[in-house]
């Protein structure tokens, strides 16, 4: 007695939940769907950002590597210039000492001694020659010294230029490294945000799935049809057309209507949802091998349902009640059921149920 009461109250609770879904279904459903779409969009944007950041990271690591190579190259040039500068300084030092010595000697000779040297000339010609040579020696010494000093200064200038270049490269390297580290941190944040969004998505997905299943069961699944935006296969190769008046069935060997279009494709080729919708069927079915159906909304007062035949159940990636988006992979091409080779049997039906009117799918695709 006690046990029965417990089971009974659990059932009441379950029914109350279902009833409350049903009660405010229009609003609740729209809310839940909207939330699911929002979360999915946010997730998509975030993924795009993460991908973009990843390529920026690559750019930074390239920059760091390039700057490092530049620094090494410049450092080699700086080292060479340091050697040259030292050599120039040594030579300049020798010359400076020589020059100073000469100046000192001239000074020690004094003006008188200097004059005496000149005056001891035996002729005016000799005097001029001596005078000229003293002047030349001094001038030569001076210009030699000046050249050496200039050379040392030039080397010094080049060296500091190179050092500046190296500093710039070092700065570029440091900046890139800093930017890289900041971006890594941002990427980590984004990835944990993505995880949170995925959890939220799963929650909304479950909620929407329950609502959709309930709406489907009570015949109230109804939203406006949105045009298809892509084909179910990337490469569309028709192997057998839609034909309601009947075609010779390649497997059964007699004439019967062909309610869809066959597209030949290797086994395992991805099948994509051509438009947004809700999965309404996902089960084994005779002839089809397996049938997957998506409700895409109402158009001109009638449901639009796409159906996919000959897949293998284990290849189907969606479940009944699930909201799918245009371009989402839903299954793979198989060779299940009455089929002479791997292909997708694709149908468009204008109502729920197995006897719903079929229309030519090619009028619905690009
Ligand atoms: Zn077919």
From TrEMBL:
Key word Cell division present: no
Span of domain Peptidoglycan hydrolase PcsB coiled-coil: 97-158
GO molecular function: metalloendopeptidase activity
Keywords: Coiled coil, Hydrolase, Signal
Coiled coil, from the record: 26-84, 148-214
Domain M23ase beta-sheet core: 257-351
InterPro entries registered for this protein in UniProt: Cell_wall_metabolism_enzyme, Dup_hybrid_motif, M23ase_b-sheet_dom, PcsB_CC
N-terminal signal peptide: 1-26
Domain of life from the UniProt record: Bacteria
Name of the protein in its database record: Murein DD-endopeptidase MepM and murein hydrolase activator NlpD, contain LysM domain
Species for this entry: Thermoflavimicrobium dichotomicum
């Amino acid at each position: 007695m006690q046990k029965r009461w417990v089971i009974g109250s659990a059932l009441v609770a379950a029914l109350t939940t279902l009833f409350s879904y049903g009660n405010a279904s229009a609003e609740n459903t729209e809310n839940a769907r909207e939330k699911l779409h929002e979360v999915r969009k946010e997730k998509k944007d975030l993924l795009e950002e993460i991908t973009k950041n990843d390529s920026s990271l690559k750019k930074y690591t390239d920059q760091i590597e390039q700057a490092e190579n530049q620094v090494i190259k410049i450092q080699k040039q700086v080292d060479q210039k340091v050697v040259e500068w030292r050599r120039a300084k040594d030579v300049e030092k020798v010359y400076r000492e020589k020059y100073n010595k000469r100046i000192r000697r001239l000074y020690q000779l004094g003006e008188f001694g200097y004059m005496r040297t000149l005056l001891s000339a035996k002729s005016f010609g000799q005097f001029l020659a001596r005078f000229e040579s003293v002047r030349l020696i001094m001038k030569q010494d001076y210009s030699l010294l000046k050249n050496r000093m200039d050379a040392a200064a030039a080397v010094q200038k080049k060296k500091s230029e190179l050092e500046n270049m190296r500093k710039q490269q070092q700065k570029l390297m440091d900046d890139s490294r800093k930017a890289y580290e900041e971006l890594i941190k941002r990427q980590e944040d984004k990835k944990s945000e993505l995880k949170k969004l995925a959890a939220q998505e799963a929650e909304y997905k479950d909620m929407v799935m329950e609502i959709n299943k309930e709406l489907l069961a009570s015949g109230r699944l109804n939203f406006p049809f949105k045009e298809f935006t892509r084909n179910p296969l990337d490469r569309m190769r028709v192997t057998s057309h839609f034909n309601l008046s009947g075609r010779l069935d390649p497997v059964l060997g007699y004439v019967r209507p062909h309610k869809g279009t066959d597209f030949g494709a290797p086994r395992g080729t991805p099948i994509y949802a051509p438009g947004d919708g809700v999965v309404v069927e996902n089960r084994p079915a005779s002839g089809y091998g397996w049938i997957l159906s998506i409700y895409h909304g109402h158009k001109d007062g009638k449901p639009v349902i796409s159906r996919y035949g000959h897949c293998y159940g284990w290849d189907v990636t969606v479940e009944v009640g699930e909201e799918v988006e245009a371009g989402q992979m839903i299954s793979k091409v198989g060779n299940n059921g009455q089929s002479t080779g791997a292909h997708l049997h694709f149908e468009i039906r204008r109502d729920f149920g197995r006897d719903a009117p079929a229309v030519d799918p090619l009028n619905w695709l690009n």
